[in-house]
Amino acid sequence: MDKRKRKKIGEDPPADVAKEAPGTKHERDQDANRSYGAGGGHKKGGKRPKTGDASTTKSTHRLTPSDDNYPKDCGDDKIYWKEWSEVDRVVREVSNQKYKDTCWAHATKKNIEARLKIQFNLDVSLSVDHLYHGIAKKMSTDAIKNFDELKNFLKNEGIIQEKDCECEKRTNKKDPCSKKIEAKKVGVLKIEEFITTKVVSEEELIQLVKVAPVMVSLLATDDFLAHKGEGIFYGDKRSKEKTQGNHLVLVIGYNSIDGQHYWIIQNTWGVKWGDKGFAKIARKISRGKGQHSLFSEIVYPVISGVGGLA
């Protein structure tokens, strides 16, 4: 029996999920791009969008419940939160998926690592290559159309540590990782569940992020691709914004600056994007009246033990 078994994080999806009116432009855009990958650059020969810096006023002023700009979706919780990157080894170094549509593999690996550290104080580096190759062999593209294959793989086959992965030796006829797993020569972690839910209850998302980082999906528009600096990203500035599809990122916290409320994310496009690979994303409450959340889905694994990793 796994002696490090603990109470599961995020076993149930948010209870109340607010939905946009059917057929909104944002909803149609999400459906039209219903695959997850969005490499961190334009394809070879394509033009890279102009770099932008969505700056915001920096201030040390902290709001109180009596202030007009105090958010109404936090309940009795504090609106200022120390992000998970300030907790040792919960959030790891920024990765770079480059032109591959593999954000789903990078973000999932990071999310599992973070939860293992928070729940069990287990510090391991998991193999993004093992996760990618285990699922890619069942697909025709790098991007995934939905989370079914990812969920099934993590529940039934599992993920291994980076030090045990030999995917670089993989060929069409040989899969050394599978042989090692079958021979029980390496430790494997299988998750209990993989939760996916339509957002856009940011009130519920706050409660989830307080417990552990979670993944979210958003549209990888040209404006988002070009985002640079410490400023808050508020979304598209153009009505006909081009998009590379849906993109998964890790939400590691939330905060407020001078009445502007935002999420803190870690991306998988390298350290030259955003603020050294991280960014502030405007929360719905700070995007203006009638504006939707920039996030379209919440995704996270449920882990009830460390499996064969320890």
From TrEMBL:
Start-end of Basic and acidic residues biased regions: 17-32
Alphabetical list of Gene3D superfamilies matching this protein: Cysteine proteinases (3.90.70.10)
Signal peptide (UniProt feature, chain positions): none
Keywords from the UniProt entry: Hydrolase, Protease, Thiol protease
Domain of life per record: Eukaryota
A biological-process GO annotation: proteolysis
Stretches the record annotates as Disordered: 1-70
Stretches with biased composition (Polar residues): 53-67
InterPro entries associated with the record: Papain-like_cys_pep_sf, Peptidase_C1A, Peptidase_C1A_C
Domain Peptidase C1A papain C-terminal: 75-302
GO molecular function, one term: cysteine-type peptidase activity
Assigned protein family: Belongs to the peptidase C1 family.
Protein name: Peptidase C1A papain C-terminal domain-containing protein
Organism, as annotated: Brassica cretica (Mustard)
